Amino acid sequence: AHPHIGTEKLPLVINKMRDEIIQKGGEFHFETKCEDFIIENGTIKGIEAKNTKTGESTQFYGDAVLLSTGHSAADIYQLIAKNNPSSLQAKTFAAGVRVEHSRMLIDAMQYHGKLSENLPAAEYRITAQVEERGVYSFCMCPGGFIVPSSTGPDEIVVNGMSSSERNSKWSNAAIVVEIRPEDIPSEFVDEAKKNGCEALAGLYFRTWLEKQAKLNGKGQKAPSQRMVDFINEEKSKTLPATSYTPGVVSSKLNDWLPPFIAERLKIAFSEFNKKMRGYISEDALLVAIESRTSTPVRILRDKDSLECVGIKGLYPCGEGSGYSGGIVSSAMDGENSADKILEKINS
Length: 347
Hints:
The chain has 347 residues and is α+β, with helices and mostly antiparallel strands. Helix 6 (227-232) links the parallel strand 12 (222-226) and strand 13. It has two domains: 31-88 and 300-346, 3-Layer(bba) Sandwich (FAD/NAD(P)-binding domain); 92-290, no CATH class. The chain has helices spanning 10-23, 74-83, 103-110, 186-194, 201-215, 227-232, 253-256, 259-275, 327-346, and strands at 32-40, 43-51, 57-61, 65-67, 88-90, 93-102, 127-130, 133-141, 145-148, 158-161, 170-179, 222-226, 248-250, 285-290, 297-299, 314-316. The mean pLDDT is 96.
């Protein structure tokens, strides 16, 4: 087993981190957006920011800018592309669906039928190689919930979480297909080239997928399909109960997911069922779309200084940089970047 703090406890941890930063002289500016970089002779001097409520603009200056905006801040990639497009590089990412089963079914499969109140909700990690691309589970949430993860009004994005007790009636996991830069449909590559930064093609494609999920959902209800119907390419007449609070609406995912994603998912589910008998079941539910396991863009860094290539003094770190994934690796990446900043200031 690995340590699990529980999603509901993380905000308390973040609050304590914020308090400590303030005690040490740090400042937090909420409802404030980075609008542009202040760059002189290839070196960043600060940022232009705007209060999203009042519209007031402010300039912040410093010896370095630590960029840790996460993998969902598409506007930051656009900003870097505007200032120095060669700082960005397309990278492999993944997209697919959240698969939800009853917790009891997953427990029975993983514990070989030996269910007990003393056993925790069972986990699984599963992979398959399909047509030279990986298809794999990610962020498996035993006894968990599917939750909305959108960052804009015109998209639907889903994710998963588990409370510290891991005691919901369901267990879910992202099942995603590896997407390499050469897999991106040509229209998104052409759009990126037209806008002066081909590295953004994957970002445009991801945005399109998330908008398709919105169009095929209903309001905040996510497009969903029973796994058996997805495999048989039939629209689900009914949908099972789900942990996804905004609700789900029946959608034939096969009709709008790109074939290179949909077909690999179908093959992978059959492979998974050989390893976990019962994985393909009547009540297994697919909820779309899971598209933010990692960023499709990497902000290139100097391997020694960790500064952004082409923009000195800018230190991209964490998931948004394309060099880490998950809480622990991102925290370590942030520490490494902070150490490099201190080295430069003290030199």
